[in-house]
């Protein structure tokens, strides 16, 4: 009997919307023949491999200035020259493929930073308030428990005991008189 070996190959292709992994200024060279010392570098990922488009503040394409390197099966690194006079301008890295797009600005908007800071402060204040309320409630409960424990303690009872028989007779007669008179 012949034994046959069957080999199956399964290829799983997963499509993915582009993601921007990093966006930063680098002092490395992205182009072979360039005198530019600083580059804005954008690393993207997605399947199919995303195309990187650079946008100026007026959303004008900066495509002719950019360089793109294939840095993995689903990764691409793209660069554009970053000039000192452009530091106050926002440049956008946009990654596009058939599944969608992703954008990131450099430098990040001050509005976004302020929102993150304000939200963080508010969350910290709320958490602090909740903590303080919990501590106050626990202290009150503890004090109430202590007060109720004190109330259930045995209290000594004092009574008067007279050993003088004549005093007992006088005491009983005065009680009887009080009952007869109704007072």
Describe the structure.
The strands form two sheets. A four-stranded antiparallel β-sheet has the order 1-2-5-4, with no helix packed on it. The chain has a three-stranded antiparallel β-sheet with strand order 3-6-7, with no helix packed on it. The model has no long low-confidence stretch (mean pLDDT 79). It is elongated and about 130 Å long. Helix content is 32%, strand content 27%. The protein starts with 15 loop residues before the first strand and ends with a helix. The longest helix has 42 residues, at 110-151. The chain contains two helices and seven strands; from the N terminus they run E-E-E-E-E-E-E-H-H. With 183 residues, the protein is α+β, with helices and mostly antiparallel strands. Residues 18-113 form the Ig-like domain. Keywords: Membrane, Transmembrane, Transmembrane helix. The chain crosses the membrane at residues 114-139.
